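question for whoever is on the cluster today: can someone run the full assembly for these? two chains, 646 residues total. i dont have access anymore since they changed the login thing
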Amino acid sequence: MRIIIFGGAGFIGKKLALELLNLGEIAIDGSEPKPISELVLFDKFKAEGLPTDDRLVVMNEDICDSAVIEKLLAKHVDVIFHLAAIVSGEAEKNFDLGMQVNLHANLTLLEQCRALGYAPTMVFASSCGVFGGELTDVIEDHTGPTPKSSYGTQKAVVDLLINDYTRRGFIKGRSIRLPTIAIRPGKPNAATSSFISSIIREPLQGKPANCPVSAESKFWILSPKKVVENFIIACELPNEAWKGNWVVNLPGLTTPIADMVEQLEVVGGKEAAELITWEPDEFLQSIVLTWPPELVTTKGIALGFKKDENVGEIIQAFIDEDL
Amino acid sequence: MRIIIFGGAGFIGKKLALELLNLGEIAIDGSEPKPISELVLFDKFKAEGLPTDDRLVVMNEDICDSAVIEKLLAKHVDVIFHLAAIVSGEAEKNFDLGMQVNLHANLTLLEQCRALGYAPTMVFASSCGVFGGELTDVIEDHTGPTPKSSYGTQKAVVDLLINDYTRRGFIKGRSIRLPTIAIRPGKPNAATSSFISSIIREPLQGKPANCPVSAESKFWILSPKKVVENFIIACELPNEAWKGNWVVNLPGLTTPIADMVEQLEVVGGKEAAELITWEPDEFLQSIVLTWPPELVTTKGIALGFKKDENVGEIIQAFIDEDL
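^ ran it for u. tokens below:
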């Protein structure tokens, strides 16, 4: 199996790469697992702390460079995990860049995959940020995307195209809509949801962090550990299991910020929780508060996708894995 | 007011043009109506039977030619009615052509409108063909698109982009999802729904027509007269009335084919109904039988969009207007 991870230097991409190298094999479309012979980590940015491994190929290139992609795809590829994106905050502030990377590069990539003629598997990191409406809404599997951000729009567009390219047999696409991933290791980034990780990660290391929304605000979250499992599940599921719709809302946990702070106190003490400041941020609120925190993911659960049991487990996993 | 109709030589585009010339004025975004000074009929194909009118400018050009579009937009434009498309059957058979016209040309057009800097009004002809699933489903306003055709996919993608460009203030977009339009005058075309008009239109003129689905099959239909009214309503509604979502499923009439044939007998006699042949067509069925015939269009009705009262009225309007 030759695998490409676009966005392989991001924290999920890297965790996924390490897990794949560790597993050593993967199945596609319900077949028997086969050994992984090559794993290409493709990212504009350099990944740090990678293991020495003969199967690992690191490429620091731009996904918008179609000539580079063409060369990359010239050798048979079995699976593409596609996590490369301009994050929500940046795509909102820089419309052209968001359109370029989150839409146009994907249009080109889909065409290049179609040209291969053998329908490679492509697992695309979509987002529950495709939804946006009244916060009281409960999102079900059939609920339509009504994004209130350009990022959400671009993800929803690619969902549709992945479905059509798969229906026509050009690729074996799977578009998994990710909840807010928490707790992210590393540093805060331009994702509008970045603070949801920061308010736990930073105080646990004695650093301050700002929460731009009220403690009552709720979010739909999933841990990095479970999202990595879910990428692999999406790849391995047979094409038919999706019943003609290869887009799925991933299961998650509806979590009030207050519950996260409470759990932070349990593991880090009162002094950790006091490192959180509560300055509202209108720009961040205008995006993150349109994301629905309540989803009924009947299809995702039926397909076998995983979620976390509670916030305490999520924080403990972060401490064990990333601190 | 300077108005452009893309797809102006199609039967709806032409009816819309004649209605606008007749009205002589139009409002945009809830403002007072103003006189129409120029009406550009843009189409790859020649429109026949146009009236002589100083306000009318006919352009036979390709919407995929971005240089032509740029020139067209160099002079201030108030309203764009966008009906140009590769129809469902053709977009399914010729994937590249469908993507070119129904997706890429629109991406370019949206960017060219954004570059104008003054947010022209754009009413886009989307389609209830964005839906596709179990025929027992009832489609509501919040139901997500799950197209089972490339045409439906391309329309659903443009819906999303029109919403985002409007939310950001680049255009004042309105995407109206058209039911199957019946009875279409003229000749059968490559739209997979073409037969729904043919089985009435042809027998009324003593000609045979084939119905590729069973008499029990139901469709969501709207007359040409009402769709023209709805294009103008969409243009005139204030931006705020749409409440942050400028896409709407148009009201229509759930109609079994049997009801249409019954009404054909009423006006054309038994000999007219006997001109219908009933040869199934797998390709047509694979698309049209995924279209939901039952929609609850609460939003469309609240916004004031119009529908027909019954099939008899639709057939009578066709006889009066087009025969």
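summary bc i know u wont read the tokens: The interface with chain A takes residues 95, 137, 142-148, 150, 153, 156-157, 160-161, 163-164, 167-168, 244-245 of chain B (CB under 8 Å). The mean pLDDT of chain B is 95.
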